[in-house]
């Protein structure tokens, strides 16, 4: 998937993945896609809930070798 | 423009772990675009103390309090397994291993995210803490200011 920006949040613990994602999204335009890499086990629930609450769209996510990758489209 | 949601947290505890929970929730709420206020009262005020010794005029009791209470977030004890001060050292090592953010850094991050850090002035008087001893850029208020924030708050916690 094509992303406008990639955020490496690997190795970061709660609440950093969400805080960093929020910062990255703030600097983006509506409709642009942010790709996030995270290793925090809670990241899936966290980012799903966060995207929904903020009016963003979680396009897709995969898990590979304990790394979660998310694509969020800014609302 | 939708009105921002509000999170208000009362930090009463002066324990490192409880303050950490409060600040993690606060930083998370700020990332949720909430307007966040942490109201520090009683022992929670110690999280806002500067680490360095600030020379201010104090009475005998106030001096005793100042000596017995932790100076700053990094010097606070644990609510459990404190082991006379060894516990915090152990947990800080474990935190490093798991890349958890230490409390002083969480407080800095809160300030960067424009979280309102408020010190309760009544309990400051009780504990003999003065503005010069607390971090810069915080607010001073009482119960009314807290309630004004909390009454239209969406998340409200007492820690």
Top keywords for this entry?
A: 75 residues; Translation Initiation Factor IF3; 2 helices; 29% helix; globular; B: 159 residues; alpha/beta; five-stranded parallel β-sheet; DsrE/DsrF/DrsH-like family protein (chain B); DsrE2-like (chain B)
Radius of gyration of chain B: 16 Å
Number of helices of chain A: 2
Estimate percent helicity of chain A. Answer: 25-40%
Order of helices and strands of chain B: EHEHHHEHEHE
CATH architecture of chain A: 2-Layer Sandwich
Name the beta content range of chain B: 15-25%
The total count of helices of chain B amounts to: 6
Assign the CATH topology of chain A: Translation Initiation Factor IF3
Largest interface between protein chains, with number of residues from each side: A-B, 13 and 13 residues
Strand order of the largest sheet of chain B: 4-3-2-1-5
The domain tally of chain A reads: 1
Number of domain modules of chain B: 1
Strand order of the largest sheet of chain A: 1-2-4-3
Mean pLDDT of chain A: 94
Unreliable runs of chain B: none
CATH topology of chain B: Hypothetical Protein Ychn, Chain: A
* Rg of chain A, Å, rounded: 11 Å
The CATH class of chain B: Alpha Beta
SSE class of chain A: alpha+beta
Protein name (chain B): DsrE/DsrF/DrsH-like family protein
Protein name (chain A): Sulfurtransferase TusA family protein
Family (chain A): Belongs to the sulfur carrier protein TusA family.
InterPro entries (chain A): TusA-like (IPR001455), TusA-like_sf (IPR036868)
